[in-house]
Amino acid sequence: MRFQTRGRHVIDLIFPIALFFVFAASALIVLILAADLYGSTTSQLKVNDETRSALAYIEEKIRQNDTEGALEIVNIEQTDCLAISADYNGILCTTYIYEYEGMLKELFIRNGVSFTLKNGRDIMEISSLSMTCPEKHLYRFVVTDSDGSQSSLVASERSVP
Fold first, then answer.
1. 157 in Cβ contact with 137 (< 8 Å)
2. DSSP state letter for 144
3. Which of 1, 9, 118, 159 is exposed most, by the fewest CB atoms within 10 A?
4. What's the pTM?
5. What is the pLDDT of residues 50-77, one digit of tens each?
6. Which candidate, 56, 37, 60, places its Cα nearest to that of 48?
């Protein structure tokens, strides 16, 4: 009895190799798209982190020290500063929040003591901070991050009469 042997064709070799390259190319395309998506997502999160964290910090400081007449925007060394006044056991102190040399800074100091803005404690890196008082007891803050994106916050004193 004779067995029939089937002859091998070139397509038997080319088809699995072509199929492998199709799957490899598909996997590479998916990998490139995923890396691009990851990069854009992390850059957007960084932008949100810089601006929103700075605004959340300012808002929390306002809420922590919310007493009537405690907030004021003052200009020191040609820089706008949010001045938050407080009385600690009879000692009058002021917290200044401002942008100085690309950093959001905070300076807590006893009233009457001389100081410069460079003495403040670094909080986080920002490009600029602008603050305005459009109405009495209403404050608007705009933070610009290193990429030029801006976020704003409008806050008011809750303890106003």
1. yes
2. E
3. 1
4. 0.72
5. 778 889 999 999 888 888 778 899 999 9
6. 56
